[in-house]
Amino acid sequence: MSLKWLMSFKELEGQLARWVERLQQYDFQIIYRKGVLHKNANGLSRRPCANTKCQYCARIEIKEASKIGSVVARIVLSEEKLETWRQEQLEDPGISIILQGKEAGIRPSWQEVASKETSAKVYWSYWDSLEVKDGALYKVWKAPNLKSSVAQLVVPKKRVQEILKEIHDSSSGDNFYSE
């Protein structure tokens, strides 16, 4: 909705009136900008770039990927649980395309990933940081000093709430072990 349009009314009622009242708390100026100058459009509204080597798209993907999350716990899995975890990764539409690509040694094209869930796009942008160990997909974080690294097990969507609840409800709030 255009702020210029909204502010042009003399008498407003209901929600529009509440919006204007809320906006009046701020000191702002409405400046017209041609449509071609609107470079800050939501990335999800754009068609995927066909150029897979586009540096602009790569920067956006990395920026978006950094918003997804971080390691919040340590997960220790038995061999049997690891196989179950792998199966759940394969069933997760955001992870499976990446896991299968890593196993085959072939990165899926952006066109293959663009129509998938956001998580697939994030993992696609992390391609060089992902590894398959014991059949499961991990994101490997390397310390800036390059002397240490941490392998983070990629969590299937169906497990996220369970893990967060376990972490939140655990006595220490930071250790989750599944054996």
Q: What features would you describe in this structure?
A:
The chain is mainly α and 179 residues long. Helices cover 43% and strands 9% of the residues. The chain is built from 8 helices and 3 strands. It has helices at residues 3-7, 14-23, 55-65, 79-91, 93-104, 110-114, 118-125, 157-169; strands spanning 130-133, 136-142, 149-153. It has a 3-stranded antiparallel sheet with strand order 1-2-3. It starts with a helix and ends in a 10-residue tail after the last helix. Residues 60-72 and 171-179 have low confidence and may be disordered.
Topology:
Elements: H1 3-7, H2 14-23, H3 55-65, H4 79-91, H5 93-104, H6 110-114, H7 118-125, E1 130-133, E2 136-142, E3 149-153, H8 157-169
Antiparallel strand pairs: 1-2, 2-3
Helix pairs in contact: 3-7, 5-7
Short description:
The protein is mainly alpha-helical and 179 residues long.
String of helices and strands: HHHHHHHEEEH
Measure the end-to-end span. 53 Å
Overall geometry comes to elongated
As laid out across the biggest beta sheet, the strand order is 1-2-3
Helix coverage percent: 40-55%
What class do helices, strands and sheet pairing give?
A: mainly alpha
Tally the beta strands: 3
How would you sum up the major sheet? 3 strands, antiparallel
Cα Rg: 22 Å
Mean pLDDT: 76
Tally of individual domains = 3
What fraction of residues sit in β-strands?
5-15%
- How large is the count of helical segments? 8
List segments where confidence is low: pLDDT < 50 over at least 5 consecutive residues. 60-72, 171-179
